[in-house]
């Protein structure tokens, strides 16, 4: 995970990926992990953690989309 984090951080430093897209991708990753956790029956805490990840994933994704919309509006006009 550290390798992926450092790779994405280097892309952000070079300007390849914006902070908005970083938030969008992070939120989608959280939603994917939540999806995987909903299928776990062996642990009683898994659905609770999945619920938290869904809420946070939606919030982070929405924040990233909003950031990209603001960025594009600012660059247009």
Feature tags:
77 residues; mainly alpha; 3 helices; elongated
Topology of this protein?
Layout: H1 2-14, H2 19-38, H3 46-76
Q: How many angstroms separate the termini?
A: 39 Å
Instruction: Kindly report the average pLDDT value.
Output: 88
Largest sheet: none
How many domains, in number, for the residues? 1
Radius of gyration: 15 Å
The helix content, as a percent range, equals over 70%
Structural class: mainly alpha
**Proportion of residues in extended strands:** under 5%
Taking pLDDT < 50 over at least 5 consecutive residues as the criterion, the unreliable ranges are none
**Given the structure, what is the number of helices?**
3
Shape, please?
elongated
* Strand/helix succession: HHH
Describe this entry's structure for a reader.
- There is one protein chain.
- With 77 residues, this protein is mainly α.
- It has helices at 2-14, 19-38, 46-76.
- α2 (19-38) runs antiparallel to α3.
- The radius of gyration is 15 Å and the shape is elongated.
- The mean pLDDT is 88.
What's this entry about, in short?
83% of the residues lie in helices and 0% in strands. The longest helix has 31 residues.
């Amino acid at each position: 995970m550290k390798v992926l984090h450092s790779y994405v951080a280097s892309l952000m430093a070079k300007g390849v990926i914006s902070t908005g897209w970083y938030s969008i991708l992070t939120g989608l990753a959280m939603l994917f992990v939540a999806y995987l956790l909903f299928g776990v029956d062996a642990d009683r805490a898994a659905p609770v953690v999945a619920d938290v990840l869904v809420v946070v994933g939606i919030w982070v994704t929405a924040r990233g989309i909003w950031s990209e919309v603001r960025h594009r509006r600012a660059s247009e006009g």
